[in-house]
């Protein structure tokens, strides 16, 4: 069986962090990225007892920094990485199109869409050379259905969904599998970021219902990358029991 080595963006928190931990439990060597160096250091210290870990600190919006960090990896890493988990991303704001802040629109397009493209283009040459390669893009139910005030977050995740489909077609002859994962409500730092540190608003997102936890999505990512070589999980939509659509929740 080919040894698995994964590159995970946004591993300092939430879904990316839980995925890094689960992968390490399964012996998958890791390149983990984020902007919070102290968290990257802590993750490296925690996971290095199980697997090889490299950390890279860059803002996915910074195209030059993305390419400098990734092309600067050692040849050992470059010849080993066969899984890319494009997870880094967030919502910025929850306001009507007419009231929303243009800086928030920029952030979501630049991080969730352009950042994912930069990282993918930088990592892809290794994936195409290495065996049994796989890209997992973290989209969202927000990329399948629009909800009030979701506007450009929705647009950014619809873009991720389309990019997953496009990658799957274009990479068909390269032997690179592509999985799109679309979670519903997951309790992470996501809402704190969306509401710019307002804990009351962030907590209200999960009022009266049991959301998913990051580990639930890590499980589905691991499931996707641990299938036999001939099986390609194309798209997974994973919701809490208390959620039926991007706008239908059952709250107590
Ligand atoms: P968190 O806020 O907990 O984690 C986001 C991660 O992305 C962090 O590690 C953060 O690292 C990284 N990140 C954010 N902005 C940047 C940037 N500019 N450059 C580099 N890294 C960045 O949220 P989640 O774990 O919930 O989110 C992970 C993914 O899951 C996102 O793509 C999100 O859209 C998606 N998702 C989340 C859902 C939810 O309900 N939570 C549901 C559906 C999808 P750092 O700050 O250190 O840079
Ligand atoms: C995150 C889930 O419903 O808040 O993508 O957009 S939602």
Automatic annotation (TrEMBL):
GO MF annotations in UniProt: oxidoreductase activity, acting on the CH-OH group of donors, NAD or NADP as acceptor
Species name: Lactovum miscens
Pfam family name, one: adh_short
Family: Belongs to the short-chain dehydrogenases/reductases (SDR) family.
Protein name, entry field: NADP-dependent 3-hydroxy acid dehydrogenase YdfG
This protein's UniProt keywords: Oxidoreductase
Keyword Oxidoreductase: yes
């Amino acid at each position: 069986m080919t040894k698995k080595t994964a590159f995970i963006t946004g591993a300092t928190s939430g879904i990316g962090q839980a995925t890094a931990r689960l992968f390490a439990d399964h012996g998958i060597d890791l390149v983990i990225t984020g902007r919070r160096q102290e968290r990257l250091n802590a993750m490296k210290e925690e996971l290095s007892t199980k697997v090889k870990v490299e950390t890279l600190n860059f803002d996915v919006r910074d195209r030059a920094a993305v390419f400098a960090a990734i092309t600067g990896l050692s040849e050992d890493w470059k010849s080993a990485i066969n899984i890319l988990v494009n997870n880094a991303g967030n919502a910025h704001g929850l306001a009507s199109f007419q009231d929303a802040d243009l800086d928030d629109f920029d952030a979501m397009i630049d991080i969730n869409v352009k950042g994912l493209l930069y990282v993918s283009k930088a990592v892809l040459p290794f994936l195409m050379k290495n065996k049994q390669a796989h890209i997992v893009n973290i989209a969202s139910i927000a990329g399948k259905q629009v909800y009030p005030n979701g506007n450009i977050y929705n647009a950014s995740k619809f873009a991720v969904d389309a990019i997953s489909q496009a990658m799957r077609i274009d990479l068909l002859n390269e032997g690179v599998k592509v999985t799109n994962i679309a979670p519903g409500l997951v309790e992470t730092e996501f809402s704190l970021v969306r509401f710019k540190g307002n804990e009351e608003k962030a907590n209200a997102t999960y009022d009266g219902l049991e959301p998913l936890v990051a580990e639930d999505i890590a499980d589905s990512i691991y499931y996707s990358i641990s299938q036999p070589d001939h099986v390609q999980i194309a798209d997974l939509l994973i919701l809490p029991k208390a959620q039926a659509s991007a706008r239908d929740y059952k709250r107590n």
